[in-house]
C-alpha cells in the first residue's frame, strides 16, 4: 500500500498548529527552562503535583514526563519534546498525540482553528472541553482544567477518523489526569 506524502505530512502540520495554541490571545511571561530540567530523552523531571513559582500550579509540569509515564500502558512511541511545555508521541494506530500545558490560560480559551465543535465534558472530576475538528476534520482536543487560569490540552490527529482521534485524546487525558496538579 502506498501512502501519499500529503496524508503523512498534513496531519503532522495540523498537530503542530494545534499544539502551538490556536488563539488570538497574547501569552504572558517568557519561556525558560525549569531548574533541574534536561533536554535529553532519557532524563526528565517527573510531573509535579505541587504548585510552582509563577504561572500557577503548571509552572513545573513536564509534558514529556507525563507522556513517558503512560507510554507503556498506551503503547506510545516516538516521544518528542517540542519545547514550551509541549510534547508529542505516536500510538500503535499511527495516531499522533500531544500534550501541551497552558499555565496562564484556562479552558475558556480552548479553541480550534475555526471549524471546531466544542462541548463541555469532564475528565475524572475536572472540568474539560472536547474540541472536535480542532484544526482539521480528523483532529481532536480535550482541554482539562487545572485551575481557573490554567489547563492541559490533550490532542490527537488520526489519519482518517475524527472519532479515532477523539477516542485517543480522551484516553490520553484520562491516563494523565491523575498526575496533574490538584
Automatic annotation (TrEMBL):
Which stretches does the entry tag as region Disordered?
A: 23-54
Where would one find the signal peptide in this protein? 1-20
| Keyword Membrane in record | no
* Keywords associated with the record: Signal
Q: Does the keyword Signal apply?
A: yes
> What is a single Pfam family found in this protein's UniProt entry?
DUF3558
Q: Where is the composition biased (Polar residues)?
A: 32-46
What is the name listed in the Swiss-Prot or TrEMBL entry for this protein?
DUF3558 domain-containing protein
